[in-house]
């Protein structure tokens, strides 16, 4: 079913191109591992099993990592009411609603399809935001579900995860068993590490580029659906400012799921370092919302550019 979230052709093109390039990389990676390890059955079975597990259980893994739990309407009536209203406006299925007992203000959406999705917010977010700001954040997360970019990011992240695991396995196998291996085995393991490291680096950059664009697309869709880009800009400014005051040690514990968050646990870096960021900078997001605000004839929120 097509939702009323405004479709984003540029996002669709980027998702398609990213998946195509990662598909080619995936085939090359599997072929290289088969040649090096001389066991195509083992390689294919393991990779397919891990991909299937990541695709089908990504929502549970994310909820577990964020210490989230599913909540019913009786427990959080206001939160459910906002999600109900937005889903009715957007004409989309209501996702499972979850809350994480974390002081870090944030939110994320996950799931393999609009019919199997979860939207989770932290108690830290609920304490800090006004109703209009919370609506903007939830609309942002629901747009990820409607655009199906959550599922794409989950699948796209798979190759990098596998490559990283192969590097670790090869490294520790070499460290703890290197003395017992002959020279040929050592060369094979070195080649596996080199191929895996290259695949990880390429997939890392491709996923990061897609992740940054999908955040801008979600901001646009949320602002257009609610008609209040200033509320979303206010939420962004408030949450980003509060995250900056949380000890970095606490933020690093959840940084592995940065790509799924409303705002990154550790802020987006400017300049060349931004290539490694999962999110565009706060300034980029506020500038875009300021332009949408002007287009809609709404007074821009403080801190946005018109």
Q: Mind explaining what this structure looks like?
A:
The protein is an alpha+beta fold and 306 residues long. It has helices at residues 9-37, 40-65, 77-90, 123-128, 131-147, 149-177, 183-226, 229-243, 248-252, 282-296, and strands at residues 68-70, 96-100, 107-113, 116-122. A hairpin with a 2-residue loop joins strand 3 and strand 4. The chain is elongated and about 70 Å long.
Task: Give structural attributes.
four-stranded mixed beta sheet; alpha+beta; 306 residues; 7% strand; 65% helix; 10 helices; disordered C terminus
- The average pLDDT score comes to 81
Shape: elongated
Low-confidence stretches: 299-306
Q: How do the strands of the widest beta sheet line up side by side?
A: 1-2-4-3
The largest β sheet comes out as: 4 strands, mixed
Strand percent estimate = 5-15%
Helix content: 55-70%
* Structure summary, number of beta strands: 4
Order of helices and strands: HHEHEEEHHHHHHH
User: How many domain regions?
Assistant: 1
How many helical stretches? 10
Query: Helices and strands: which structural class?
Result: alpha+beta
Amino- and carboxy-terminal Cα gap: 35 Å
Radius of gyration over C-alpha positions, nearest whole angstrom: 21 Å
């Amino acid at each position: 079913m097509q939702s009323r979230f405004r479709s984003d052709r540029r996002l669709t093109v980027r998702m398609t191109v990213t998946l195509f390039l990662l598909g080619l990389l995936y085939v090359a990676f599997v072929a290289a591992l088969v040649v090096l390890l001389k066991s195509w059955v083992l390689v294919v079975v393991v990779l397919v099993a891990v991909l299937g597990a990541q695709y089908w259980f990504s929502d549970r893994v994310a909820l577990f990592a964020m210490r989230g739990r599913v909540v019913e309407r009786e427990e959080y009536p206001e939160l459910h009411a906002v999600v109900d209203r937005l889903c009715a406006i957007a004409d989309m299925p209501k996702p499972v609603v979850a809350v994480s007992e974390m002081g870090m203000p944030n939110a994320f959406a996950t799931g393999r399809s609009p019919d199997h999705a979860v939207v989770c917010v932290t108690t830290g977010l609920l304490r800090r935001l006004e109703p209009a700001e919370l609506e903007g954040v939830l609309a942002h997360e629901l747009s990820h579900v409607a655009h199906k970019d959550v599922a794409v990011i989950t699948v796209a992240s798979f190759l990098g995860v596998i490559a990283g695991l192969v590097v670790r396995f090869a490294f520790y196998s070499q460290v703890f068993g290197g003395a017992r291996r002959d020279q040929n085995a050592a060369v094979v393991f070195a080649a596996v590490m080199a191929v895996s490291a290259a695949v990880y680096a390429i997939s890392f950059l491709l996923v990061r580029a897609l992740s940054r664009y999908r955040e801008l697309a979600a901001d646009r869709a949320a602002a257009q659906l609610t008609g209040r880009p200033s509320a979303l800009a206010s939420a962004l400014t408030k949450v980003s400012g509060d995250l900056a005051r949380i000890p970095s040690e606490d933020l690093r514990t959840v940084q592995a799921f940065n790509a799924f968050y409303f705002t990154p646990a550790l802020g987006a870096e400017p300049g060349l370092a931004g290539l490694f960021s999962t999110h565009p900078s706060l300034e980029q997001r506020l500038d875009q919302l300021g332009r949408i605000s002007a287009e809609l004839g709404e007074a821009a929120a403080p801190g946005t550019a018109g």
